[in-house]
Amino acid sequence: MSSARAFVLLDVEGTTTPAEFVLRVLFPHAHAQVGAFLEAHASDPEVARDVTGLRDQHGRDAAAGLSPPAWDGSAAAAAPYARWLMDQDRKLTALKSLQGKIWAEGYARGELRGQVYDDVPPALARWTGAGSRVAIFSSGSVLAQKLIFGHSDHGDLTRFVSAYFDTTTGPKREAQSYARIAAALALPAAAGLFVSDVVAELDAAREAGMATALAVRTPPGPAPNGHPQVESFDELP
Questions:
Q1: DSSP-assigned beta bridge partners for residue 155
Q2: Chain mean position to CA 179
Q3: E strands, the chain, in order
Q4: Is 9 helix (H, G, I), strand (E, B) or coil?
Q5: In the predicted model, is pLDDT for residue 4 greater than 70?
Q6: Do you find a cis peptide bond into 220, omega within 30 degrees of 0?
Q7: Interatomic CA distance for residues 146 and 136, integer angstroms
Q8: In what order do the strands lie in the sheet with 7-10?
Q9: Within 10 Å of residue 185's Cβ, how many Cβ atoms?
Q10: What local confidence, expressed as pLDDT, does residue 68 receive?
């Protein structure tokens, strides 16, 4: 891997942040709080947009015979369907947006604190100090990303991150999403390095022209499919 990277693009869950934090802290928090949150914020225009997205997906799920929970379409009654989607770990943009808003309240109340691996802060400082831009690409919403890095157990790390991308950019397993990210950064894809723990995402980034690295936080990892493997960001120039 070349040390002359104009940008470094990072996945979050399993790459910068322990998967256990997302699965055992963030998801359960949103699952438990979604009913009260929707009841309190049903009239909020941004929440209403999320609910519209959920309502549209509910119709598609029902039409597909997936038997989602019954729902009258109102914001206050959306919680059972939202929980149903969470239980399936659906990567629905409206759901991720709603979860981010719930987590924002949790961080503000001191109930949540973001977690990153110990090697992440020095790597962020090293890359930005060398002139590289650092960006994040996660299925979690941009808000959720900013919360993890802004309220991390290593302090506010957002000063190192110049851009955030979520599923509004496109699916993480499609090459076009990575081409869009490079274009948004006004940099050639070949000048970037994408780090993730998911081989299919790395395959897509490589197809778009980016260099790649497979983060193996808990060896042994998946079959790397030709992607260089690292167990720590200390191994990345």
A1: 152, 153
A2: 18
A3: 7-10, 133-137, 163-165, 192-196, 211-215, 229-230
A4: strand
A5: no
A6: yes
A7: 9
A8: 163-165, 133-137, 7-10, 192-196, 211-215, 229-230
A9: 19
A10: 96
Tokens representing 56 are 């549209």
24 DSSP assignment: I
Does 30 score more than 60 pLDDT?
A: yes
pLDDT at 201 over 60: yes
Joined tokens for residue 62: 């029902």
Q: Are 92 and 85 in contact (CB under 8 A)?
A: yes
Domains of the chain: residue spans and CATH: 7-17+114-235 (3.40.50.1000), 22-108 (1.10.720)
- Residue 230 tokens read as 């690292």
Q: CA-CA distance, 93 to 202, in Å (whole number)?
A: 21
- The letter for the amino acid at 85 is L
How many helices (H) and strands (E) in the chain?
A: 9, 6
Please state, in angstroms and rounded to a whole number, the distance separating the CA atoms of residues 179 and 29: 34
pLDDT score for 142: 96
Tokens (6 digits) for 51: 């609910």
